[in-house]
Write a structure and sequence with these properties.
3 helices
């Protein structure tokens, strides 16, 4: 089956729920589904979830949450993107593009001017192809014992026309998403 076959949904839908069960439906039962356990970070749950179903099975997901951030002396908000997952047997068929772009369209209605995500270095080219840009420099994020430097790469995308990322040190004023 290809992504263009009749039973391959090309529609991103809002999900009423997203639990470990749904994550398992996409990725199977894996101990470290996103490959970030080595960071030791505590992550924030997403508030809105978007997915793609194929033949009734959830095969892709992106979650969103609005978060406070300080860049230099400016305080603003971002829409945090996280929990991006595509079924291993369906990768390379454009599902990541579909679900991330679908979530980004919804994020444009949420108010903040920027989207933000954290990713492992091997995923930088994927997100760059989707229009995301890597932030230079360190990003500090909150953790239960206080702020730490995010060990993953930080990327951003504009959620409004003409928006540029501001200059200055970045501090996410919440747990990372």
């Amino acid at each position: 089956m290809t992504a263009n076959s009749p039973s391959a949904s090309r529609t991103v839908v809002a999900l009423a729920r997203y639990t470990k069960r749904e994550l398992g439906e996409i990725l199977g039962e894996v101990e470290d589904p996103f490959g970030v356990a080595h960071t030791g970070l505590t992550w924030l749950a997403k508030e809105r979830h978007f997915g793609v179903r194929r033949d009734g099975r959830l095969v892709a997901h992106t979650g969103l949450v609005t978060l406070p951030v300080t860049v230099g002396a400016a305080e603003t908000e971002v829409v945090g993107f996280g929990g991006v997952a595509v079924a291993p047997d369906l990768r390379g068929q454009g599902l990541a593009r579909l679900v991330v772009n679908g979530a980004r369209e919804h994020a444009r209605t949420m108010g903040p001017p920027y989207g933000l995500l954290f990713c492992r270095p091997p995923l930088l080219p994927l997100y760059e192809r989707l229009g995301w840009q890597a932030l230079p420099g360190e990003v500090r994020v909150e953790q239960p014992d206080g702020p730490v430097v995010m060990p993953l790469r930080t990327m951003w995308t504009p959620l409004r026309d003409g928006v540029r990322w501001p200059e200055g040190p970045v501090r996410l004023r919440s747990l990372p998403m």
